[in-house]
## 1
Amino acid sequence: MNILPKPQQVTTLEGTTTLHSPLRVCAREWRDEVRAWAEDLAKSTHIEVEFVEEDDADIVFNLASDLDGYRLHIDGQIRVQCAWSDGVVQALTSLRLLGPAELYSAQRVDLTSFEVPNCEINDWPAFGWRGAHLDVARHFWDLATIKRYVDLLVMHKLNILHLHLNDDQGWRVEIPNWPKLTSVGGWRNGSPVGHEDDNVRDTVRHGGFYTREELEDLTHYCALRGISIVPEIDLPGHAQAVVAAYPELGNYPETQLEVWEHWGISDHVLNVSDTALDFAVEVVSYVASIFPNATVHIGGDECPTTEWEVSDLAASVMEQHGFESAQQLQGLFTSRLSEVLEESGHQVIAWDEVLDAEVPETTVIAAWRSEEKGVEAALRGHYVVMMPMQYLYFDWLSSENPSEPVAVHPAPFVTTWEKVYSYNVIPSELNSLQRKQILGAQAQLWTEYIATRDRMDYMAFPRLSAFAEVVWGTKEELDSFRPRLVRHLARLSLAGVQFRPLDSGE
Ligand code: ACM
């Protein structure tokens, strides 16, 4: 049995069960989720699903409202119990993982039946937030590539896709009243070649953006597969693409900037006028309207105050509010955006820098700079998602081997898959009550140095597989995990994932 992440409880039973196409499924609810699973299975095999009403069907679903996850009983017949659609997705994922690796084949194989071991699985996630972030700003990814990534998240029972939708180097979502965000801000005329510090640039135009309809389609695709999208609009820093499109929103309205062709943190941030604040509110509210039930990420990281410190406007706004440092100006954005989003029923999350200025206690903190930031946020009463870069930034080197592809930092900033697996989501400093503030954890895939799908695979896997088990809450000794990971990688290999081999560079 090779389910990864490992289930909480497994009882093996004697024998096996063979399922033949068409699989007869009795599901009075959750048919859309079953159909999505069947659609995915049909991309790899010739196995079809047919809905029936009879209780002697091959697969029977029943409601068990006390379950956090799912119960999967296989003994001639497959019986699934769960309380809600996430459990359905998790149970069907486990069933697919119990079958041969070909069930995940990237090429459609000639398979019309498969065998699974008889067993009873009782399984549930330790954390409600099992996230994977994808930077679609530094490099634009088409929807097919994002959906393929989503399929891999589903395989690993992750349930949040955080889309980083704008940055200095590109704006990726169409906004009706602000067309230049995409016509100008969506495109840059060159990108670094090799590492940013090498100071070599190409002149290749790069860009793209998503329409509302495309994002709605993606949301629907994700929802049927147990994944919620967390859209991020990152303001007031990381705003050079915005200011290139609308110079009046920046601190030097007479200067026409380009969408940034460097990696790093641009000094060009939004100004602190009412116009800029209203812009932020309008745009973030519009994006939130595309994702009606979502938690919305309002960014807030790495906002240099260089321009604000020499701005007369910023000085007068500081005086008006009695601020002593320019950094406090960022709180104006955080407070207004949080207030407006909460009014429309959205939960709000922001990077941990927002703790350095005014921030409502209801804002969830994305603790990325260190574990300590997560502890600080929890002690201040915030809910927290743990994303410490030292463990969960997959744009870091995978090993110290000089043959590793160029990454954001040089050694010793290395995150091996073993280091990811060693990560404990709950910081040891927190007591049993404070621990409840930790909603879960999230792995980050920043894409400055990831321009192709193959590179995306290499940087994400196997680190994301290790992370999935950490955040599911069933990690064990590395020695027991490793052989399971090796077998899991055979499955990823058939799925066409160009993962980093376990032993290269070790
Ligand atoms: C970040 O990595 N700047 C959140």
## 2
Amino acid sequence: MNIQNYIYGRFIDPVSNEWIDNYNPSVGQVYGQTPNSGKEDVEKAFQAANKAFPSWSNTSIDERSRILLKIAQLITEKQSELAAAESKDNGKPLALATAIDIPRASANFRFFANAITQFASEAHESVGMDAMNFTLRQPLGVVGCISPWNLPLYLFTWKIAPALAAGNCVVAKPSEVTPMTAFLLGEICNRAGLPKGVLNIVHGLGTTTGQAIVAHPKIKAISFTGGTQTGAHIARVAAPMFKKLSLELGGKNPNIIFSDCDYENMLHTTVRSSFANQGQICLCGSRIFVERGIYQRFKVDFVEAVSKLKIGDPANPKTDIGALVSDQHLKKVTSYIANAHKYGGTVLFGGNNVQVEGLEHGYYLQPTIIEVQDNQCKLNQEEIFGPVVTIMPFDTEEEVLQMANDITYGLSATLWTNNLNRTMQMVKQIQAGIVWINTWLLRDLRTPFGGVKNSGVGREGGFEALRFFTEPKNICIKYQTSENGLTTKK
Ligand code: NAD
């Protein structure tokens, strides 16, 4: 199935007529073509958005909210079609796309449709100066949203929904690796009555389409989720134009397990936090540190639990681990495993490519557990972003805290303990944007989401996202007070 750009409510081919192959990773075959849009296409999308902006930014909050709720509802109605498309495009289990990706895409629109009705700005009375200040929060204009391939519609809508709710018009680009559900979203927006030009979706490579969005002088802000290197490049391009930037980047998150934890819950959740979505979630706990007292027990139980995971056809409801997203990504991940020994690691489980019957050319890899001796090794310092975790023991809180923080990334961390004092001391010192205690990936959309250090700048989620997509303007009103405090004289 071929994909087209969605500009001013219409589906159109790229000006250059350049196309990219779109792969189904579960079978390793091309199943469609995606536009590789250039500057001209991005300009068309910008013009459409710019034309729509005066009207959309003045559309009442109730009306904007109503349209976004309608989009949410239509996503839910089309859940099975969207989940099937997501699974085919990405290789993720259909069950996961059905339970997580698509419901969350709908929830993103529903959440921001409601959040905008509660969004308010501050007022500051300058007491003693006879002045009153209030803050106007106005939409920025045309903004750019660029998203990655691991949670395609989930992350695409996580940016678009708050941008639209706040009254902006959008030029958006999904990953060229997984463009299908973003394409399907265009039709949903038309059916929901989103006015033409409010959302425009251009497809293509990062270096052509993405670059054209970031470099466009009139696109006011860029909300980006993706790799750290790409984020650094985007920051370099956008900074001289003083664009507002939100960068959600890579992670290499510690999963810290103390012996006083609820062991069964920890074990079950750690299997998920290691390998959900084939380990291709920026929040996966890929560095597992286990207190020495339970290290041997954990090692045996973890290997046993992971060995039971079913790798196979993403469409099979019993599949736990589907295909990796692309051949290129599979090769990157397997190169870390092939060199594990050189990097000081010992493979305890997995490490091999898997031939799935009937799907022999798909990109399947066993979930892989590598024991390491030193947090400084490459396996612990670089983001692999696949079904690969490392494990190593620790003895003290001080030691594990030092290792958890001794990395360039700082996205999330998980802590397993029932000791409240330890929890409170550690959460203050862990360098991360999100810390989960005795759970993982429990998300409340009102909370700030983002990372520190090389994991990014800025926060998404709740009012943080609405603040990002609006410009605060201070209005200061000076007044005069007469002697009796009233304007009418006696
Ligand atoms: P990527 O950086 O290669 O691509 C992300 C998006 O940016 C894609 O749409 C791509 O086309 C575009 N892009 C690439 N080069 C560009 C350029 N020069 N200018 C503009 N756009 C460009 O990342 P990926 O491989 O798609 O995704 C995996 C990465 O995303 C991992 O590092 C992962 O940790 C990260 N990620 C982070 C979060 C988070 O919330 N922090 C969430 C999911 C994924």
